[in-house]
Amino acid sequence: MPKSLADGHIKLAILTTAPANAAAPTIAELNAGINAAARVLSSDFQWSPTDSDKVAEKALADINNVNALAASNFQAGMTIFRFFNASTGVADPTEDSLFTATKVKGTTLWIYARKTGKLETAAWASGDEIYLGGSVLTDLPQEPSDMGGYIKKRIPLEPQQMYPNIAAA
Prior knowledge:
The chain has one domain. The protein is mostly beta strands. It has helices spanning 27-32, 97-102, and strands spanning 10-15, 34-35, 46-50, 54-56, 67-69, 73-81, 108-115, 129-138, 152-167. Helices cover 7% and strands 37% of the residues.
C-alpha cells in the first residue's frame, strides 16, 4: 500500500447544532454542517489530542518515576478566511458562514475531521474514520500574526467533550 499525502485529504464539518449522538454523527448531520476545509488556513490548524495529565504514582520499590495517565487534553484553533462581495465590500452571507458561526465568544460548535486516503471532495460515508470530533467553545476572533495575504481571523477554540478515533454513523 502506498503512503498517502495529507494535502487535500482533510474533510472538516462544523455543526452549529448538536448531533443526536456526538460520538457518532450521522451522514445527514455532517452534511448539514458547514463544509469548512476550503475556508481554513492549513498552516496553523490545531485539532488534536495533546499529552494527557500525569499523576505521579511511584511505589516504594520503584527505582524510576512512574506516572499514571490522567485526564486527556486537546488543542484546538483555526484561522479562517473571510469572504466579501467584491463590488460592495460587504461580507458574503453564504461564503462567510464560517466566520458568522465562530465570531461570538462562547458559541458552542461541534467539529468533525476526516483525514484518510479519500480526498476532501469525497462525500461523507457511513463508517468514515473521524480522527477527532467533539464540541468546542469559541473565543473572540483575533487578528492573525501575518496581516498580509487573504483577509482572515484566528479563532481560538476551547475543547469541551472530545471523541478521538470515532466513525460516522
